[in-house]
Amino acid sequence: MRRRINIAWAQEASAAPVTVGDVTVTPLARALVVRLPQGGFVWNRPTALTVERAGAVQAATYLVVFPLAFTSSVFVPTQTMPGWLQPFAANQAVTVATNALRGLVLGQGALPPGRTVAGQVALALLWVVAITAVVVPLAVRTYRRTVS
Fold first, then answer.
1. Which residues, including other chains, have CB under 8 Å from residue 94's CB and lie 6 or more apart?
2. Which runs of consecutive H residues, i.e. helices, occur in the chain?
3. In this structure, are residues 73 and 89 in contact, taking their beta carbons and an 8 Å threshold?
């Protein structure tokens, strides 16, 4: 199974750019759009092991997803948020991934001032690594407690 994921990533990243109207989607943008959400929600694995019903996993996951989504640049620019919220909103994982995708798809002009496409992509990948590094050991520990 893992080989298929890696092969799919390689095929996605090595494909030719696609132009729809006046927007050109690069292979890296397509790979991030397709693959990042699949790995980005790795943090709900420990939750799935600690609750008893599947519906409860979804409810517990939304307790994290909603605040992150609404305090990100997904819906409104972070510059329009209250001053005390801006530092958190501008640097959290959802905002960084959103900015990276906007930059890859729409170009540098779609990013907030002082942000670069390469910087946002690097930060998005760093967030994925950091979240995975924190959550995988938690999931393994929780799983070991559950099965023993």
1. 68, 69, 72, 74
2. 2-14, 27-40, 45-50, 54-70, 86-91, 93-106, 117-147
3. yes
State how far the Cα of 84 lies from the Cα of 71, in Å rounded to an integer: 12
pLDDT of residue 7: 39
The answer to whether the predicted template modeling score (pTM) of the entire model surpasses 0.70 is: no
The answer to whether the beta carbons of residues 106 and 37 sit under 8 Å apart is no
Residues 6+ apart with CB under 8 A from 135: 42, 43, 45, 46
List, for residues 55-92, the tens digit of each pLDDT value.
776 677 777 778 888 888 888 999 999 999 999 999 99
Give the Cα separation of 102 and 104 in Å (integer). 6
33 has pLDDT over 80: no
User: Could you say which DSSP state residue 112 is in?
Assistant: P
Dihedral sign of CA atoms 69, 75, 78, 82 in order? negative
Q: pLDDT at position 107, please?
A: 87
